[in-house]
Amino acid sequence: AWSDGHFDHPFQLEGVHATLECLDCHAGGYQGTPTECVGCHQDDYNGATNPNHIAAGFPTTCDSCHGFADPNWQAANYPHTVWPLVGNHAQQQCITCHTGTVYQGLPSECVDCHLDDYNATTDPNHTEAGFPTTCDLCHDPADPSWGDGQFDHPIQLEGVHATLDCLDCHAGGYQGTPTECVGCHQDDYDNSTNPNHSAAGFPTTCDNCHGFADPNWQAADYPHTVWPLVGNHAQQQCITCHTGTVYQGLPSECVDCHLDDYNATTNPNHTAAGFPTQCEFCHNPADSSWNQGTFSHPYFPIDSGEHAGVQCSSCHINPTNFGIFSCISGGCHPRGETDGDHEGVTGYVYDSAACYSCHPDGQPPELRTRSRGRLRTRPDNVRN
């Protein structure tokens, strides 16, 4: 049908234009109808107040801000390239910043609009601190509030530092504030007594031992590389070992601190037995107590069976010579019981040398062949 005719319109029929009747625009005919927006919308341009297009000197190329596909002209989108409208700025009316319908030649620096905010700020006081007026060094225009300002602080604001107000450290201003720990904590260093930092000659580079993220300075962690603090040592106060506030040049061998322990030990008697003074041969620094010392006992295993846990003096009957031992003293192997266990064993003798000859690893009789009844030559270091 002829009603299905299609006209190739030189003007985009989108958005609100697509809903209009032809006569809404062509009331005076079709020839000579303008093709520029302002040809129809000059009155809209002249009557606009927010913003005032004429006062602002806006161009009459309406599509610079208004899109054809928008449902109405109020959905304008000005690119605002000089000052991107992000964060809180995007929520403002044009007249909030463009007072007096002034749009041309407005300043483009933050402080040009926010100088009063800068001057009135007290935490921190920007004026007294001599902060720069380049606001975006700390304040992000995309933040919803200027209170979210973030300063790239040269001192790490972690741990207890993160909870402080600016004025706690910057009571005297912001310019020239020291950036080394000791610049603020010299008094803490001088007054420390456990340990006494000054007497010990500790360095004033506090972060060698104290971590910024620690909740307080008492959580210091000294590496203690010369003597690892493990086991019972980790539970001690510094002054337990560093008496007289002496920290430099202390000995690093166990016996240097534990010689009295060595000399006073009776089970076994270290001095009488001629034990070495390299304590860690038997004692592990990581143990919670020195009583946990263990000797490898290479000549006769005592780490399992009935021999495990036996006192040294039960077998080593001579406290001055641990090379001498006995199997039949102290009630460990009573004669009546032992004789009965060896009934029928050729060459059996109730004698320590015989015990060791047949049982060098301490295994019980039932695990051995009874035909092994021949005894070795009696060792000189064995006593009954």
Can you offer a commentary on this structure?
With 384 residues, the chain is mainly alpha-helical. Among the domains are: 192-248, no CATH class; 253-294, no CATH class; 305-367, no CATH class. The chain is built from 15 helices and no strands. It starts with 21 loop residues before the first helix and ends in a 26-residue tail after the last helix. The model is unreliable at 368-384 (pLDDT under 50).
Shape, principal axes of CA atoms: elongated
Strand fraction equals: under 5%
Low-confidence stretches: 368-384
Largest sheet: none
Rounded to an integer, what's the Rg over CA atoms? 47 Å
The N- and C-terminal alpha carbons lie at a distance of: 134 Å
> In which range does the helix fraction lie?
10-25%
| Structure class | mainly alpha
SSE succession: HHHHHHHHHHHHHHH
The chain-level mean pLDDT equals 83
How many DSSP H or I helices? 15
Question: How many strand units?
Answer: 0
What does the secondary structure layout of this molecule look like, with pairings?
Layout: H1 22-25, H2 37-47, H3 53-56, H4 94-97, H5 110-120, H6 126-129, H7 166-169, H8 181-191, H9 197-200, H10 238-241, H11 254-264, H12 270-273, H13 312-315, H14 335-341, H15 352-358
